[in-house]
Amino acid sequence: MVGCFSFSPISRLRGFLAAGGFTLLLTLAFPSALHSRPHIGILAPRVAYPSQGHEWFGSFLQDELSQQFRFSNRFAVMSPFTARLWQERYGSRSPEALKMFFQQAQLELLVDVKIQKVLRRVGVEWQIVRGTDNATQVVHFSKNYPLDTPDEFVVAMFADLETEIPEFSGLQGFPRGQTWKAVRAFYQWRDQQVPQRGSPEWSNFRSQLRGLVADHPSLEEQVLEYEALLDILEAGEQTPAYVPILKKADERLQILKARQPGNSEISTLLALSYYLQGETLQAKSEAVIANAKNPFAGPALMIYGLVIGRTPQEGKSFIQKGLRLYPFLADSTYDTLPPYHTLIRPLGQWLVSGSSQSRPDYEERIAEGQKYFRKGEFDQAQQVFADLSATVPTIAKPQIYLARIEIRRGAPETALRRLQGLQRQFPEESEVALYLGYAHEKLGQNDRAEDAYRHALNLRPDSPRALLRLSTVLIRRKRYNEAQSFLESLTSKYPDYAVAWWNLGVLHRKLRQPKQAQQAWERALQVEPDNERIRSALMKLSVQLESVSE
Fold it and tell me: Where are the domains of the chain?
């Protein structure tokens, strides 16, 4: 099992982080690097007599500990929700239960606290549990704190923690500018049982959350996160997920990502939202970011596994690792907020419970049609998507696939008419605009294709496929500077997007920049080493470069 650890490597990592290179290296391609940080779990605080009625204070303390540790980028931190699920699984804090917890959750440190509030002071009793090969070692200490403000409480608490436990040296509580009244109001809301989605109680639940910001502006970031979470829950209840709601979630999460760059939960939620929308490239990118920030991000690993290949089976190792860290997806009930149970359906084959039996027919049929489409079996694919478009006419995806089949069969005019009708029916659907542009391309209507792709980008500014197709059209129209700007932005944001590197190479060839073309195609080949088209182009270019040098 996990033994005690030295923090000298961590100091070096912190220096590297300050240099700005850490995030670039911590990708899922380098899993060993992700485990150089100590793995920490945080148990739900125990509220001692006579502090009954202050469970909200325990929730606040649990969140603060988690966020202070996670945002430091020094630790791999099990989220409070996940820690609670693990704790409930073993049901006690006995030495044997703790030992099992350490082994199964792959922990190195466990933070266990008990609080007792009396008048304007709170006593915090700490237990820091270290894992050893055969047992656990426990460090006890306690402190009393005045309840002046949440900020002062957290700063003082972490100052004492780093004094008593050397592993936590250098941590500083970051201020939020909140009042105890605001904190209590938020956690009393959060600890409610979550109502059924779509019910009148659900609407009231959401309006209560929005009302918290009006009364307590300092809660804005907490409220933004939970509004996004509720958006994902609401959209994920529908089959397929309701994209307009998910786009609202994306907007809220992107705001938070800019404000909280160390928050792995935000990137995990973004990955889930993109996955539910079918935006696999963005989902992959955010899953990588989430796991780089926090190797305990089990759901991010599962999402990454689902999107890295043409089939989920290709990401099996990542999915299995994610399930080891987060084995709760198949649990029968979810009465709390984290929305990762929306992954039950696509992960059904790896779950041991019968939860996957509830997989809706729609998703099975979509997967079946996509399989036929990828294999070029268009008759079978057309039959599946035609049936789906008749049974679920309120969903654009089946008809988009019918248009894609028509394009692949050499009938872009038919596809264009279908897509124009779809655009009237689904004016906010970016994929309709995307393939409308592609149909125009196939008809040689590059000006109209450009308009369609720009419209797709207005609907979804971060769409890599729309950026790619727009760059292709701009190259054809000899607007090379614009195309280069889009492609450099695309390859910077999505360095594993082989087609973008290919297009960048094509652009450099047209600009008579063979060395830059070679570099771009070499990057493309690194991503897709079996791509014979790229390999052949590189060989021809290398011959040309050698002849020039001679």
Answer: 8-185, 196-355, 360-460, 462-550
Whether the Cβ atoms of residue 161 and residue 111 lie closer than 8 Å to each other: no
Q: Which among 407, 424, 387, 391 has a CA at the least distance from the CA of 469? A: 407
Q: Are 369 and 384 in contact (CB under 8 A)?
A: yes
What is the C-alpha to C-alpha distance for residues 487 and 467, in angstroms, rounded to an integer? 8
Q: Which residues pair with 117 in a beta bridge?
A: 122
The pLDDT value recorded for residue 336 is 57
Of the two residues 450 and 541, the one the predictor is more confident about is 450
Containing 122, the helix (H) or strand (E) segment is strand 121-131
d(CA 495, CA 535): 18
Q: Which CATH architecture has domain 196-355?
A: Alpha Horseshoe (1.25)
Phi-psi region of 262 (alpha: psi -120 to 50; beta: other; left: phi over 0): alpha
> DSSP state, 133?
S
Place of tokens 């790229």: 534
Three-state DSSP at 63 gives: helix
Alpha helices in 195-331 (DSSP H): 200-215, 220-236, 243-259, 264-277, 280-293, 298-307, 316-325
* Predicted confidence (pLDDT) per residue in 200-241, tens digit: 888 899 999 999 999 999 999 999 999 999 999 888 777 666
Average pLDDT, the chain: 82
Look at the domain 462-550 and name its fold: 1.25.40
State residue 71's pLDDT score. 82
Q: Report pLDDT for 518.
A: 92
Question: Which pair of tokens denotes residue 418?
Answer: 């279908």
Q: For the segment 533-544, what is each residue's pLDDT rounded down to a tens digit? A: 888 888 888 877
Task: Supply angle C-alpha 94, 84, 289, rounded to 5.
Answer: 125
Q: Rounded to whole angstroms, how far apart are CA atoms 285 and 290?
A: 9
Instruction: Tell whether the model's pLDDT for residue 459 goes beyond 90.
Output: no
Closest CA to 391 of 361, 367, 431: 361
Q: Domain 360-460 belongs to what topology?
A: 1.25.40
8 Å CB contact between 194 and 336? yes
Which helix (DSSP H) or strand (DSSP E) does residue 27 occupy? none
CA atoms within 13 A on the CB side of 68: 26
Report the alpha-carbon distance of residue 290 to residue 27 in Å, rounded: 9
Token pair, residue 131, equals 């894992």
Q: Do domains 196-355 and 462-550 have the same CATH topology?
A: yes
Q: Residues near 120 by Cβ (< 8 Å), separated by ≥ 6?
A: 146, 147
Is the entire prediction scored with pTM above 0.85? no
Q: Are 180 and 149 a contacting pair, CB within 8 Å? A: yes
- For residues 302, 274, 308, 76, the Cα torsion angle rounded to the nearest 10 degrees is -40
Q: From CA 292, how far away is CA 21, in angstroms rounded?
A: 12
- Classified by CATH at the fold level, domain 8-185 comes out as Rossmann fold (3.40.50)
Distance of alpha carbon 56 from alpha carbon 405, whole angstroms:
55
Name 469's bridge partners: none
